[in-house]
């Protein structure tokens, strides 16, 4: 066990909490592999089969469109029934959708399968976030949520390293089979291993904490949601179009480009832990979040500048840095939302948080694909620097925390 000593009390984190965190990370990573797979099919579809970039980008956005439709509902179910079965059922349904994608014989059927799989995989987003807040005290939630938020870049890393090679050598069905197996296995492991955290209650002799709608008491949650949605634009633009940019603009082969993106996503995953620890040390999520927004604008301008100059090696380094920064905000925002919403609302609030992000992510595929077609990659990357710049004034000045999540 890990013992945390503060000036007021000693908090003991049971080994079970770390096991729950491990399962939560693995579950969401498996779902992310499925959601990310279409983006890494773009080189095959665009360069080899002649599918227009905007259409290929729309196919890549189908899983996130599905997630938008179900995130709040999954969060409400997690609030009502707990995390264990919501995560397990969602993973099993994602595996079922992957079977449909494997056997899809046309673009429409493939798009529908990706849509349904995305809708199912949304279960892990809100529910696994609740596990972290339920099992870890505030002074370690930044670290724990940073580890939990590794799941998305880790999932993208697995997809980046495996999907392009599988697709080029064995076809789309083989590439999707990877996520089928991962989701099926994790559905079983989570059903067996996850234990729902105890629901916090008010101390004896005190007034119970309010369960009223936290969206009516202040604008804190809305501001975090809006800022996070804007910050998603460069993150998904880099993850969706990074590989085709490297192949068509930087003249890399698909396998090498996939490796670079996988490295960038892995570094981003480690960076999320560092940012989470920093927020624990600083004692503020939103202060660190404002630092991330400023760095994000600079990083996107650097990518655009190196592309303009034609500096291939430097552009690759700038891409890795920009990718790392683009995913750094998620853990901070998730922790802020869960802490401010309270136990009775955290699932729904995290669902709303993800809904806003994935609405933006769903638009990124076709819109950025079309923008690249019109003005090219360098100007598009420069335009994407506006998103973190606009998000900065939306970040609240101070953290807000629900009474039952204090201490």
Notes on the protein architecture:
With 407 residues, the protein is mainly alpha-helical. It has a single domain, classed as MFS general substrate transporter like domains (Growth Hormone, Chain: A). It has 17 helices and two strands. A two-stranded antiparallel ribbon has the order 1-2. A hairpin with a 4-residue loop joins β1 (2-5) and β2 (10-13).
CATH topology: Growth Hormone, Chain: A
Strand content: under 5%
CATH architecture: Up-down Bundle
Unreliably modeled segments? 1-10
CATH class: Mainly Alpha
End-to-end Cα distance, whole Å, is 19 Å
The overall pLDDT, averaged over residues, is 81
Q: Got a strand count? A: 2
- Report on the biggest sheet: 2 strands, antiparallel
What key attributes describe this structure?
disordered N terminus; 407 residues; two-stranded antiparallel sheet; 77% helix; Growth Hormone, Chain: A
Topology:
Elements: E1 2-5, E2 10-13, H1 15-36, H2 42-48, H3 53-81, H4 84-102, H5 107-121, H6 123-135, H7 138-148, H8 151-170, H9 172-193, H10 220-248, H11 254-282, H12 285-309, H13 312-326, H14 329-341, H15 346-375, H16 377-384, H17 386-391
Antiparallel strand pairs: 1-2
Helix pairs in contact: 1-4, 1-5, 1-6, 1-8, 1-9, 3-5, 3-6, 3-15, 4-5, 4-6, 4-9, 6-7, 6-15, 7-11, 7-14, 8-9, 8-11, 10-11, 10-13, 10-14, 10-15, 11-12, 11-13, 11-14, 12-13, 12-14, 12-16, 14-15, 15-16
């Amino acid at each position: 066990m890990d013992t945390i000593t503060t000036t007021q009390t000693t908090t003991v984190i049971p080994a079970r909490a770390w096991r729950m965190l491990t399962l939560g990370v693995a579950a969401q990573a498996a779902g992310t592999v499925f959601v990310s797979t279409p983006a890494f099919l773009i080189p095959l579809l665009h360069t080899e089969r002649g599918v227009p970039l905007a259409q290929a980008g729309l196919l890549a956005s189908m899983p996130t469109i599905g997630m938008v439709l179900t995130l709040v509902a999954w969060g409400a179910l997690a609030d009502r029934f707990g995390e264990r079965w919501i995560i397990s059922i969602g993973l099993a349904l994602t595996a079922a959708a992957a079977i449909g994608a494997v056997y899809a014989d046309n673009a429409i059927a493939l798009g529908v399968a990706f849509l349904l799989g995305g809708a199912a995989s949304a279960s892990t987003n809100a529910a696994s976030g609740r596990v972290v807040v339920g099992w870890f005290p505030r002074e370690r939630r930044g670290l724990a949520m940073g580890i939990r938020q590794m799941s998305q870049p880790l999932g993208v890393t697995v997809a980046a390293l495996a999907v392009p090679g599988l697709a080029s050598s064995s076809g789309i069905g083989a590439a999707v089979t990877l996520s089928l197996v991962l989701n099926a296995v994790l559905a079983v492991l989570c059903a067996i291993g996850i234990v729902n955290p105890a629901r916090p209650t008010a101390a004896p002799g005190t007034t119970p904490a309010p369960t009223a709608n936290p969206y009516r008491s202040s604008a804190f949650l809305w501001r975090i949601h809006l800022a996070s949605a804007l910050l998603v634009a460069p993150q998904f633009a880099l993850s969706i179009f990074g590989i085709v940019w490297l192949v068509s603009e930087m003249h890399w082969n698909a396998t090498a480009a996939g490796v670079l993106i996988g490295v960038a996503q892995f570094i981003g995953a480690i960076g999320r832990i560092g940012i989470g620890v920093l927020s624990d040390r600083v004692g503020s999520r939103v202060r660190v979040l404002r630092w991330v927004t400023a760095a994000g604008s600079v990083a996107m301008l650097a990518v655009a500048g190196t592309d303009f100059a034609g500096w291939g090696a430097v552009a690759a380094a700038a891409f890795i840095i920009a990718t790392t920064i683009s995913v750094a905000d998620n853990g901070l925002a998730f922790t802020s939302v869960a802490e401010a919403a309270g136990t009775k609302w955290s699932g729904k609030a995290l669902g709303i948080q993800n809904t806003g992000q994935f609405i933006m992510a769903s638009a990124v595929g076709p819109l950025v694909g079309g923008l690249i077609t019109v003005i090219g990659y360098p100007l598009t990357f420069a335009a994407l620097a506006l998103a973190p710049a606009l998000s900065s004034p939306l970040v609240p000045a101070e953290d807000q925390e629900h009474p039952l999540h204090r201490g």
